[in-house]
Amino acid sequence: MSVAVSSGWTREREREGREGWREEEQATKLASNFWSKKVSEVSRSLHLKAGESLILGLMEKPRNQVRRLHDKIWGAKWTSGTASNSTIWVLGASYEFQPETRDEPVAEFLLDFSSRVWLTYRRGFEALGQSKFTSDVGWGCMLRSGQMLLAQALVCHHLGRGWRLDPDQPLERKYLEILQSFGDCRGALYPFSIHNLLERGSPYGLVAGSWLGPYALCRTIEALALADIEASKNEKQKRALPMAVCVVSGDAEGERGGAPVLFIEDVTDKCAEWEDGPGKWAPLLVLVPLVLGLEKVNPRYLPSLRATFSFPQSLGIAGGKPGASHYLVGIQDDQALYLDPHETQQAVSISPDDVEADTHSYHCREVRRMPLDAIDPSLALGFYCKSREDFDDLCTRASELATQSQGAPMFTVAQGRSRKHSTDGFNLDKLSIDVQESSTKDHVNADTASSPEDDWQIL
Fold it and tell me: Where does the chain cross the membrane (predicted)?
């Protein structure tokens, strides 16, 4: 009897094993078909030659190749085992490695990185405007990158650059208010939501489903700030954005390239406008949209790009690979470290009154990296200056950087004012680098949540 039972048990396990193997095989084929389709989209959007497409076509064995494909497109993971001992710069903070103290700066770096606000694709939110879009998957990555840069400015303003998310302490109300302000909803409680950004960007031709470029992103944030000022004057409501916004991009006819000039008097005017009084200074968000090459960044600009991450005013870079925006926050050697918005998560609601709110979807424990020379030449730099002294220091550092650029400054600083030009009703149809249909730009959606075993990976 026992032999029969044992034999029956064995046959049952074998049958289950065969069924499990068939299910796994079917799932593998589905994954292969899915990624093969994505590969075709990527190949077309990257304009790969026939010979190059074979690198992306290794979908016969999908498991390892899918990961390689993901790394090729989104960037490889940073690991303590493969990273060099070179200093890491993250938004003005440095982490220097010594053989005997390596673990300590790695832990400090990871805490710093994971404390940055991470904003990604979301699904299941309120429809955007008159559209039926309830998700920004496939087209909203530049908006999310811009939100992350703006969130970092708010963190620096309200909590300080040295702020870290402490899992052992109750959540701070101001931190929760910052998260709430980026909630995917309409209304005054969510001033920096994707809904409001699209509404403020509509004069520039921005609509749900269209890909957004760095220049248009900067102008949209500027328009949001101007609307905030008007609302506070007319409706006597508290301003959502506690800082003036200055976009450094030169004259209107020069928006598509060249080295823009930061005119100091322009900034003075911006601060006076924000404070509603001449001679007054305001906290300041400086945005610098740039085009640093044609198909790739001109190598002459790379040293200057690296150096900006060491500026104490640094808010990083909204940019990334062609058609796939990221938020670049750090640099090590020639590798840019970034937060990736291409992960789809369910829309959530955060209340400042809930000190035990689940905010894990707003922080990333995966550090990804890409060669700095592989980023798209169209990008936007961000800087936050809390005081006039901060701004003067930024001007000094930027001027020194321009002097060291060997004739290729990213932007320069000058006294005086620029020629005034209105951005009201500016037609972005003339700027093909800025607004593109999503079908030709944002080419892969990493629509998978991190598994529990991925928690706190040193990647």
Answer: none
Residues β-bridged to residue 246: 286
Positive or negative: CA dihedral 399, 163, 80, 149: negative
**Mean pLDDT of the 430-451 span:** 36
The structure tokens listed for 85 are 């001992």
Tokens of 210: 């269209």
Report domain extents, the chain: 2-74, 88-454
Q: Give the CA count within 13 Å in the CB-facing half-sphere of 155.
A: 24
Options 112, 136, 141, 195, the catalytic residue: 141
Catalytic option among 70, 326, 342, 443: 342
**CA separation for the pair 380, 216 (Å, rounded):** 10
Q: 340 catalytic, yes or no?
A: yes
Contact between 248 and 288 (Cβ < 8 Å): yes
The yes-or-no verdict on residue 438 having pLDDT over 70 is: no
Specify the amino acid at residue 98: Q
Mean model confidence pLDDT for the chain:
77
Q: Which two tokens stand for residue 364?
A: 């990333």
Is 342 an active-site residue? yes
Instruction: Supply the pLDDT for residue 48.
Output: 37
pLDDT of residue 133: 93
Distance CA 313, CA 220 (A): 21
| Contact present, 311 and 416 (Cβ < 8 Å) | no
Q: How far apart are the first and last CA of the chain?
A: 54
Q: Please report which residue ranges of 289-330 form alpha helices under DSSP H.
A: 302-308
Q: What is the pLDDT of residues 158-174, one digit of tens each?
A: 999 999 999 888 999 99
Q: Which of 340, 376, 434, 442 is catalytic?
A: 340
Total Cβ atoms within 10 A of residue 333: 14
Other Cβ atoms closer than 10 A to 210: 20
Please give the structure tokens belonging to residue 15.
């049958």
